[in-house]
Amino acid sequence: MNVQSDKSSVRPVRFAGTGSAVPDPVLTNADLEKIVDTSDEWIVTRTGIRERRIAPEGLVTSDLALPAAKTAMEEAGVGAEDLDGIICATVTPDQVFPSMGCTLQSKLGAKRAFAFDVSAACSGFLYSLSVAQGMIASWRANTVLVVGAELLSRVTNWSDRTTCILLADGAGAAILQPGDEEHGILSLTLGADGNFGSLIEQPAGGSKLPASEETVRNHLHCIHMRGNEVFKMGVRTMADECVKALGLAGYGAQDVDLLVTHQANLRIIEATAKRLGISPEKVFTNIQKYGNTSAASIPIALDEARKAGRLHSGDLVALVGFGGGLTWGAAVVRW
Ligand code: UT7
Question: Average of pLDDT values for 241-265?
Answer without folding.
Answer: 97
